[in-house]
Amino acid sequence: MSTLEAKRDWVYRGLAHPANVILASAARGQRLKPGNKLLLIGNEHAGGIGPFLGKLAVDAKVNCRFEWDRTATLESWLSGDRVGSLLKHHPNLIVVVLGTRSSDPSEISSRLADVLRVTRHVPVCWVLPLEGGSQRDALSLALPAADIPALHSEALEVHRSQTGAPSARGYAGWAGAVWAWIR
User: Fold this and answer.
1) Residues 6+ away with beta carbon under 8 Å from 25
2) Which uninterrupted H or E stretch holds 42?
3) What is the pLDDT of residue 21?
4) Are 96 and 42 in contact (CB under 8 A)?
5) With b meaning 16 or more CB within 10 Å and e meaning fewer, what string describes 32-43?
6) Which region among 3-12, 42-51, 152-161, 169-178 has the lowest average model confidence (pLDDT)?
7) Most buried by CB count within 10 Å: which residue of 17, 29, 53, 111?
8) Span 26-52, average pLDDT
9) Are 34 and 89 in contact (CB under 8 A)?
10) How far is residue 178's CA from residue 149's CA, in Å, rounded to a whole number?
């Protein structure tokens, strides 16, 4: 790793300070190795995180592909063969940045089972939305039951723009936290 690459990794991680929380790794040991393929799918937040996560992946010689739809939810990604077509790229890890329309953990659990069925044997990690609410709470209850690791983004202090949305600095920090978590 060059000095620039090491600095980018360090800076991105430092931009989103966990609020008195230590982020545990999504899995023990190093999950992504040089030559691996990472697939990031999700909503507008995946679109914000993607370019920064992609830079970190390039530095680590990991191929990163990201697909996002501004208004996507778990339910919309499961419609059609959207995820199935992305699996043709043979990812080693799928990171999902999606919320849900449902507030019912049992309904979400059913949808998560569909995700695991579609993704087959590819490990899936979930990045929970920054904002709270009954849908995020239900999703955070359903993910452990499906044995899907989740990054609780609400624990991060993500820099915001004047509109309240994450700024470029905020997305870079969030991407750094995601990268540290999946590595």
Assistant:
1) 31, 180, 181, 182, 183
2) strand 37-42
3) 42
4) yes
5) beeebbbbbbbb
6) 3-12
7) 53
8) 84
9) no
10) 12
